[in-house]
Amino acid sequence: MFNQIKICFIKEFRYYYQNPLVLFSIFLNELIVLLVFWYTAKAFVPNLEIFSGKAIDYFTFIVIGETALRIPSFFISIIGQNMKNATLDGVFDNHLLLKYSPQYSFFIEGLCASFFEILKVALVLFLASVFFVIDITFYALLLAIPIQLISILIFTGLGLISVSILLVLKRGEAWLMRLVSVATILAGAYFPTTVLPYGLDIHLRFASPFNLLLESTRQIMHEQISYQTYFQSCFILFLWAILLSTFGYFLFSKALDLHKKSDKPFTYLT
Amino acid sequence: MSDFFLTIDNLNKTYSPNKLVLNNLNHSFKKEEIISIQGDNGSGKTTLLRILSTLSLPSSGQITLDNVPLEVVSKKHRHFIGWMPSGSNGFYSKLTGLENIYFFASFYNLDTKPLNQEIEVWKNNSLFKEAINQKFYLCSTGMKNILLLFKAFMHKPKMILLDEPLASFDNETAIFASKMITNNINNKIVLFTSHQELDVKKLATRSLMIRGGMLV
């Protein structure tokens, strides 16, 4: 596995980060996004009250929303992205013939790609704390790590489900991205879910792991969570992880059989 | 237990009700045979190779490799198969030849030491030697194909399927590639497609022709 991770790192670096200009543009992009968040927060919403009487700066609120969902939701798109790149390079068939399953090889590639995404999240938090004011403690960040790790499995499962749709229909990538955006917005990445129509936020908490993940992370960050609630959230997310990763793996296998039966190329190649 | 290494029974492949590509195809092959499959364009050569490689599922029929049904190979023993596609793609374009080899070797769980020894042997060919340090998208068609040929053999599969393997090589590399194929045939079977009569004579121990969806 060490060799697999090492070579996948090299591949990721060669494909996306080799040019120093790219690294500079990432830095600049994150800084500009933070600037927009900062001035929006200062101009329109001086503070926000979402947890039992604690006023929270909107800038902190939105930065947590962005960063908490960024790595897990990255796993929804990265498997499809890896599959697309493999298809464009004519490597997809080779993945189907490896000793390990394609689910595994694409996941390992995604894992290595996520390392660079983690660095970007660290950069955002660093910039937010150095150039702006953000109310997050190191202890809260440590508590958020297990929740993020469990969520990776949830979102890998969702990624496999979405890739299965791509395998069968040979298209639909744009729609999948839109669905992720809607789920992110409904999870409250940019506003509190209390502004949603009455009762919808409660239903979403049970129906969408995005909501549970984000709400738990926010409570951790604002130190408004008891250990009991923390472990309860971890447990529920873990159940989501088992359910979705198993279902995703199974669905991908079935979609692969259909793909082999039809033997049709992907539309973005034709 | 069959005496044959590879058996194909009543194989059919249709893409639509009026497009029958393989028609009740039956054949058996012994170990260490190098079989050429010839036929007109669109006769089903590549389709047959893709079915044997498990990349495409047949509409009906049974295939066994070393007495293991191909469905089981597809699920549990994918490394039994070595595959070289036509069209000179099959490696990541922004990685070098060597990085691509290491990429796939890592997912076959190959040890680095014997792999490097094998690479040294293949480096006797100047085209391969040049190709391993070149980014794949910068490689010539011949360089790409010698890398892909190496990849098809590197994990010691039982069945090697090559889609027009020698088509883009100059004479020196074609001789080298043929030598590598014949030297590495122990406990394996090689099936390849070709339009070149000379390649067939150089390499094949037996030649078959696909006509009307059947092997003759």
What does this structure look like?
- The complex is a heterodimer of chains A (270) and B (216).
- Chain A has ten helices and two strands, in the order H-H-E-E-H-H-H-H-H-H-H-H.
- Chain A has 270 residues and is mostly helical.
- Chain A has one domain (2-269).
- Chain A has a two-stranded antiparallel sheet.
- In chain A, helix 2 (20-44) packs across helix 5 (102-131) and helix 3 packs across helix 9.
- Chain A is globular.
- The two termini of chain A are 35 Å apart.
- Chain B is α/β, with parallel strands linked by helices and 216 residues long.
- Chain B has a single domain, classed as P-loop containing nucleotide triphosphate hydrolases (Rossmann fold), CATH 3.40.50.
- Chain B has helices at 45-52, 70-76, 97-107, 112-122, 126-131, 141-154, 171-183, 197-203, and strands at residues 6-16, 19-29, 34-38, 60-65, 68-69, 81-84, 159-163, 189-193, 206-211, 214-215.
- Chain B is globular.
- The A-B interface holds A 3-4, 6-8, 10-11, 14-15, 85, 89-91, 93-94, 96-100, 105, 257, 260-261, 263 and B 15, 47, 50, 53-57, 78-79, 81, 83, 85, 87, 89-95, 99, 102-109, 112, 151, 155.
The average pLDDT of chain B is: 88
How many beta strands in the DSSP annotation of chain B? Answer: 10
Instruction: Provide mean pLDDT of chain A, rounded.
Output: 82
Q: Helical residue percent of chain B?
A: 25-40%
Biggest β-sheet description of chain A: 2 strands, antiparallel
Task: Output the radius of gyration of chain A.
Answer: 20 Å
The structural domain count of chain B equals 1
Q: CA-to-CA gap between the ends of chain A?
A: 35 Å
